[in-house]
Amino acid sequence: MAMDTKVKVNEAARLYAALGHSLRLQAVLFLASQPRGGAYVSDVVAYLQRAQSTVSHHLKVLVDAGVLATEPHGNWGWYQVVPTRLSQLSEHLSLFGTSVPALGARMVL
After folding, report:
1. In the chain, helix, strand, coil percent, each to 5?
2. Within 10 Å of residue 55's Cβ, how many Cβ atoms?
3. Dist. CA 64–CA 37, nearest whole Å
4. pLDDT tens, position by position, 13-52
5. Where in the sequence is the domain holding 79, given as residue range(s)?
6. Which residues, other chains included, contact 99 with Cβ-Cβ below 8 Å and sequence gap of 6+?
7. Shortest CA distance to 67 belongs to which of 38, 28, 101, 30?
8. Could you give the number of structural domains in the chain?
């Protein structure tokens, strides 16, 4: 595997790991649907109906993976989706090219 492909695969794994928890995926979908392009952490807490500390942990994972951007607004953090980061999802899937269907056809479940 070429070095460039290894880097892309590692980056894809990091991105998918960040989105691999249902609360994080719900948070991303919630933030992406907001008319102002984002929301305060308190809005995400209310939407997810989880403790603020739990939500903050999951938001930090998403920020660290580059899926979300944040900026402080007084006592609360403002979070928004980084659109270019999400568009990379389809880019990463293209790494598989036509081999995905071929692999799927050979898999025995």
Report:
1. 65, 15, 20
2. 22
3. 19
4. 888 888 899 999 999 999 999 998 899 999 999 999 999 9
5. 3-106
6. none
7. 28
8. 1
